[in-house]
Amino acid sequence: MSEVKQLLPPLREVFDALLGRFGPQHWWPGRTRLEMCVGAILTQNTAWKNVEKAIVNLRAARALNVRALHSADMKMLAQWIRPAGYFNVKAQRLREFTTMLVDDFGGSLDKLFSLPTEKLRERLLAVKGIGPETADCIVLYAARRPVFVIDAYTRRFMSRHDWAAHAASYDHLAKVFEAALPRDETLFNEYHALIVALGKEFCRTKARCDGCPLRKFLPEKQR
DNA sequence: CACCAGGCAAGTA
DNA sequence: TACTTGCATGGT
């Protein structure tokens, strides 16, 4: 069990350093809001590259809309999303999501997204197969509301620099960011995307810290 | 070959 | 509440 040993640096300055190094990321990678929702579910514990293949399949099958997703045969749906892994589970999760949309919002993302942020988040969390990260990805990237997304990259980014315990809860980590930053959707959007950009290159192991743009925020001996 | 990747729910104690 | 396990493909 690792303890938090380091003082939290100004998270705004950390953001500036990441932006300076990696540039704007233009997330979420998705053409439409529905596609972002689908991607958020499909990328659960799965490499994004594999999700892209699944999205391509759905588009080719003309299934990238609420009605088609909702009425598609489950075997077919599972086959389309097969490259994203856990395809039976995820087919069911997509179905749960579209069922909520159809039954409670007339199949309209607009109506779902007209809920106030907290209600929207609660409504998403009530869907079986949508947990805190998936819900927040949808709330932030598809509905464009200022909630901070915590994912495996964020967790690693924080624990690797000893800015938070690796075992810290989702809500705690989200609170750390939301307390230290202005509640700005554009900022939260870009910040999470930048943490992922960083994580693909650094923070994976103790080594590979050479050239990390965040070294200046660590004490001398740890750099 | 093993290990990992932008989680979540269900089961057990 | 706190662990553990199943789900599954594709890249390294």
Tell me what the structure shows:
- The chain has 223 residues and is mainly alpha-helical.
- It folds into 2 domains: 91 residues, Helix-hairpin-Helix base-excision DNA repair enzymes (C-terminal) (Endonuclease Iii, domain 2, Orthogonal Bundle); 110 residues, Endonuclease III, domain 1.
- Helices cover 58% and strands 0% of the residues.
- The protein has 12 helices and no strands.
- The chain is globular, with a radius of gyration of 18 Å.
- The model has no long low-confidence stretch (mean pLDDT 94).
- It binds a DNA duplex (13 and 12 nucleotides) through helix 2, helix 3, helix 6, helix 9 and helix 10.
How are the secondary structure elements laid out?
Blueprint: H1 11-22, H2 33-42, H3 48-60, H4 66-71, H5 74-80, H6 87-105, H7 109-113, H8 117-125, H9 132-142, H10 152-160, H11 170-180, H12 185-201
This protein binds a DNA duplex (13 and 12 nucleotides) through residues 39-41, 43-51, 53, 82-90, 93, 128-134, 137, 149, 151-154, 192, 195-196, 199.
Comma- or semicolon-separated keywords:
single chain, 223 residues, mainly alpha, Endonuclease Iii, domain 2, Endonuclease III, domain 1, 12 helices, 0% strand, globular, DNA-binding
